Amino acid sequence: MSNAMNQPADPDRGADRTAEETVVQPRHTDEDLHGGSIRRSVVAREQEEFGGMKFGACFFGWVTATGTAVLLTALLAAVGAGVGLSRQVETAQATQDPATVGLIGGIVLLVIILVSYFAGGYVAGRMARFNGAKQGLGVWLWAVIIAVVVAVLGWVAGNQFDVLANLNGFPRIPVNEGDLTTGGVITAVLLALVSLLGAVLGGLAGMRFHRKVDRAGLGR
């Protein structure tokens, strides 16, 4: 026993034993366990199943856009904003005769259309959850379809069926109200592009809310 106690320790054996007993634990971050890869996989599967343009959500987005345009136009007229957009100068009239609307009035009209269709796209994006840009495009397509249908009905049955003329929610197609001028065509195209831009941006914003929810539940 005294020999064993007096025997010097082998430093190499001690180092080997220490190396064998030391276990290197892999580091797992929250992102590895619950984060990016899992979230992206889940969202991809959900989008594959439920993605695409949702025409029902887009229709309600169009309803929202039209209602917002009506409210904003009425509010502007009610407060008597002297910017060239009076009760007699409205969306449809601006499309046919842009001279009736001044520069400031035209800018205000574009802002109203942009905000209205942003709201409509946002509603569609929130309802559909995925493909926000497509939902915004769907809102805009509904507006075009309704405008064409109402224009045809107005041309066939008369102005009493031209419902959008009273709502002033979207520039109409004046197939029964005289020839389009060059300025009117340019104004109509500009309004259409602004409404499309607003709807797409709104759809992306509505979808972004769901991505924030996914990050909160599944990690970043």
Automatic annotation (TrEMBL):
Q: Where is the composition biased (Basic and acidic residues)?
A: 10-20
Region annotated Disordered sits at 1-38
Question: TM spans, by residue?
Answer: 55-81, 101-125, 137-157, 184-205
The protein's UniProt keywords, in alphabetical order, are:
Membrane, Transmembrane, Transmembrane helix
Protein name, as recorded: Uncharacterized protein
